[in-house]
Fold:
Amino acid sequence: MRRNRQFSWVRELVSESRLHVSDLVWPLFVREGNNIAEPITSMPGVERVSVDLLVKQAKLAASLGIPAIALFPVVDANLKNEEASEAFHSNNLICRAVKDVKSTVPEIGIICDVALDPYTSHGHDGLVKDGVVENDATVEALCRQATILAEAGADVVAPSDMMDGRVGAIRSMLDTNGFQNTLILSYAVKYASAFYGPFRDAVGSATSLKGDKKTYQMNPANSREALREVALDVAEGADMVMVKPGMPYLDIISRVATEFSLPVLAYQVSGEYAMLKAAGNNGWLNADAAMQESLLAFKRAGASAVFTYAAPDIAKALK
Ligand code: PBG
Structure:
């Protein structure tokens, strides 16, 4: 075995998977204001930025060869309510961010999350009635949200809410409104995970979230159920599917990639990023090397691309 490992050239030659800058999607948090970059304590190196600085980050991403960014709004607490009404205003923060990025950096792909949690006072991804997250009322709301995102110029809408039937409903809503070319990246397989903790800090839903998301996000014990989720979203018209979180669920990425022929993406979520960064900052491991190794593992498992908060650092390292 060691003959094939002697020199760098032969290791490269026989390498079965590769991490390339074109595999990366950079998730970014956008907030109100001007020239503001506010560090997120639980995500070292990640900031909530105002739209003007977001445009700069998008330019950086494009210059590094990162194909797409994923945008998440940090909504002012006084705009959050039970009905998530701010999500449906066509001039809200996320729509203004999309328009500004699109007009300045037209070459970069813009992916927008579709879910109500940045906008709800209770922190759930859907509308709550009598303590229950209502499926069909939420789907109708998500369709409206997806339409205004497409109108603003989002290339990809990415429902991350885990309601049933939302991919098909969003597809037909987009089609009837003239957005036949808007892609749908479905967070088809999204587990109810403790690894989303830092993200909820980042968007300010951590303190407001009442209860947990176990009635709509998947049970970490299940893998056959993941295949049902993907099959439904494929039938409803998803263009790509996401498995999330990433590293604890490599077996799921692998199964989905083996059994389906549409692109599978992985999300190295906030908690995974935070763990690697924290250990690195303590000098306990080489965070850059560990980051690259974990991202390569997603490729090996069968992912076409990976969402990672480390995208610009990795892109620079791969140059
Ligand atoms: C919102 C959403 C979440 C993430 C992406 N979209 C959090 C959640 O479902 O609570 C998590 C991303 C991350 O942890 O990096 N629906």
